[in-house]
Every structure is written in C-alpha cells, then in structure tokens.
Hints:
There is one protein chain. The chain is 50% helix and 0% strand. With 88 residues, it is an all-alpha fold. Helix 2 crosses helix 3. The mean pLDDT is 88.
Amino acid sequence: MTTMPTPKKSEFLHSLTGTKSQAVSDDVSFPAGRPKMPADLPSLAEAEWRRLAPKLGKRKTLTKADASALEIHCRMYSRWRKVSDLAE
C-alpha cells in the first residue's frame, strides 16, 4: 500500500492553528562567492585550488561556505598525487 504525503498547509492555516510549517522551502539560495585560499596550502594543493575555484565560481556554484570542503579536497588531492608519484 502506497501512502501519499500530507498536503502542504497554507500560511493562513498555520496562523489559525498556531503551528509552523516544516515544509522544505524551494527558494533557498546561497549567494555565489569565492572563498579565500588558505595561506598554508602545499604547492600541489594550491595549484588544485587555483584550478577549481575559478571554474566553480564561473558556474556560480561556489560560495564562501564551501571553503572548508574545497580546502579538504585540495589537501587530499595533494596527498594522493604525492603517494601516486611515489608508487610509480
């Protein structure tokens, strides 16, 4: 048996019943921005940052909140490249 989701209440109905909507808003937007590159990145990680940041910025998918994730990616990429070079 398949159940259907409960229909979304209007703001008016919420005000009458004293409840708040738990529905996910469709108009959530994060302003595009360019995070600041950390000063202590190794050279390979810095090169990866410089490669990715402009591309993501151009697509307007990069925000200042993405700095940590981008830093982690760049540091892991740098480590992977070093290990890969050693393995060869």
